[in-house]
C-alpha cells in the first residue's frame, strides 16, 4: 500500500472517531522509522527529519510559531490535534484556514493568517521530537524547517488586518522562536540544520531579499557550532537572489534544483563561495523518470572542480514528497516502461550511486543498466505515433476560438436550457462511499461481471440524480461513481499513458492521488464518457453535465514525459478531449464541463515565463471545444490557487461558464471584479468550502451571494460549491446543498420583489 496511503487511512480513522490520537501517532512513528532506516540502509549521509506531516509543513510551522487565529480558541501550551486539524479542516463552528498550492505543484498548504497582534510562542516541538526519535533508532538526521522569510512571504494578512500590512515586519517576532528551536536541536546533538527557502526562486524585490540577509545575520550566533544548509528548489535562482543567498552569514551550504534550474548551474560556475558546501540537486524529485546517470555524473564532475571534492554533495532536486514511493510495489507494471522509471526509493539509490562514482567507486554494472534503459526509451516504437504528431503539428496557425461571441452564445443557450436567474449546480463528484469503492475494486479484480458493475453504477447515478432533483438543483451532474480519480480515469482510456497500482502522492492531509505516467504520444481510441453521460441524462429532464478533465489539468496532474516540450504533449491531449466533447454533443449532452482545476498551478514561478505558458495552456483549452454549436454550453472549473493575476487569461479561455474556488480564500477572487475587471461569461464563485466537514447555513451562503452580486451582474452569476464533493459524506453534503439551494431561492425572491 505504501506509507502515503497508510497515513491517509490512519488520518481518516482518527477523524471519524474510530481510532485514538495514540493510534495515529503510532502509525506515523512506524512510517517515519521505516523511511529513516531505508535511507540509512541505502548509504545516504544527510537524512532529513521533520519532513513528515499530518497535513502540510507550512501548517506545522504555524503550529511551531503558535500563530493560531483567535477563532480556534487556542489557549496556549503545546498545540494538539484538535487545534491543528481545526485550522486545516475547520470544525462545526468555525471555517478552516485558506488552502492553496505549494508553488507549481499539486501539493497544498494552509496559508498562515498573520497581523501585528499575533502573539507568537513556541507551541510545537515536532522538529526536536522527530530528531530525537530518529536518534533513538540510531539514525542521525538533518532537521528541516521552513525558513523564516519563506514562511512570512507565503502568509497573508489576517481578516481585519490591512491588505497592505508588511508581513516581513513580523520577522523580529518570529526569529526568537526559531532561536528556541535551534537551541533545542543543538542540545539534542544535531550537527546540521536545513532551512527551506524556496521563495528565493521567485521574482523578489530588493527589500524582500534584504529580509534574508537580516534574518540569517540575526540567527548567526544561535547557529554557531551547527552546519547550516539553505535549500532552494523548483526553478532557477535569479542572479540577485543567488548573490544574496551565497552571501548569508553563518551558512555552511546551499542547495539548488539543477533539474529545473539549469541557469543556476551557470551562476555556480561563474562564482561560488570558497569553503561552502554545494548540495547539487541533479536527481529529479518531482518526476518518475530514471536519471541519466552519465549525464549527471558529467555535471557533478564539472562542479567538483569548482567547489572541491569534499564540499560537493549529491542530492535530489527537491523533497521526494512529490513522487511515488517505490517501484517494488508495482509488480504488474509493464516491464519495459518500468525499466525507464525511478520512484523515491530508486532515486535514493541513484543519489548514492552518483556519490560513489564521484568518490571513485563507480558501479559499472548499475551505470550500464541505466544507459541501456535510457537507450530503450529513446528507441521504443510505443513512444511515437506519427498520426498524432501530424495532427498536433497541424494546429499551428489557428487560435481555435468559437465563431460567435460569448454573449450571443449565452442567449442561445438560455433559450434552450430555460434556467432561472442564479442557477444552481455542483462541480461534478458526489461522495465516494465504501460500497461504491467496493464495487469498483471488485470489478477491477474481476470478482463481479461487467453487467453487475454497470447495474451497480447506474443505480448509484440514479440515486445522485434523484437527490439533486429533490434538492431542486438546476443543472445536474451524474456524481462520477465510475471514477476513482478524475485524471486517472481519463488516462486509463487514452493511449500513451501507463498506470501504477500503488504510486500514491500526497496532495494534502489524507488526500492522496495516483498520477498517471505519460510515456508516449497521446490519442483517444474510443469514447470515454458518452455511455455514462447519456445514461444519466436519460434519468432526468433537467440538463445533465457531461464531465471531462481538461488537457492542462491532465498534463499537470500526471508524471509527464521529459523527452519533448510539455506544450506538445498538452496539444495532443487537447485533440483527444476535443473528440470526446464532439461525441458528447452528438449524443445530446447540451452542457459539457471541461475542468481545468490545475491551469493556474502550472504557471511558471518566474513572471518572464508566464506569457508563453498561458498562451499554450489557454489555447489547449479552446481546442477542446472550438467545434461545438452555440447552444452547447461549455463550463470549466478551477480551484485552490490565486487566480487574480491570470484573470485575463481565464477570460481568454472563452468558456461559457466558469465555476471557481472562492469561499475558502476569503472571497479574494471578488476583489478583481471590484477593481473593474469586466466578466461577460457565466461565473460561479464557490459559495462554501467542501474541504471542511462544516455545514454552512442558508444565511451565510446568501450573504456570500450578495457579496458576489455587488460586483457581478445577476444574469451571469451561478451558485455552486467550491469544488467536487467526493471527499465528503452524504450527511454533510445533503444539508449543505439544501442550504445552498435555499439561499439561491431566497435571493431570487428578493431580486424579483426589488424590481
Helix/strand-derived class?
Answer: alpha/beta
Q: Uncertain runs with pLDDT below 50, 5 residues or more? A: none
- Shape label: globular
State the oligomer: single chain
Major sheet details: 7 strands, parallel
Strand arrangement within the widest β-sheet reads 1-5-7-8-9-10-11
Terminal residue distance: 60 Å
Helix content: 40-55%
How many distinct beta strands?
20
Q: C-alpha Rg, in Å?
A: 26 Å
Q: How much strand content do the residues show? A: 5-15%
Describe this structure in words.
- Residues 1-305 form the Cobalamin-independent methionine synthase MetE N-terminal domain.
- The structure is a single chain.
- This protein is an alpha/beta fold.
- 43% of the residues lie in helices and 12% in strands.
- The strands form 6 sheets. Strands 1-5-7-8-9-10-11 form a 7-stranded parallel β-sheet.
- Strand 17, helix 23 (610-625) and strand 18 (633-638) form a beta-alpha-beta unit.
- The chain is globular and about 75 Å long.
Q: Can you describe this structure in just a few lines?
A:
With 755 residues, the chain is an alpha/beta fold. Helix 17 (434-444) packs antiparallel against helix 18 and helix 26 packs across helix 27 (730-754).
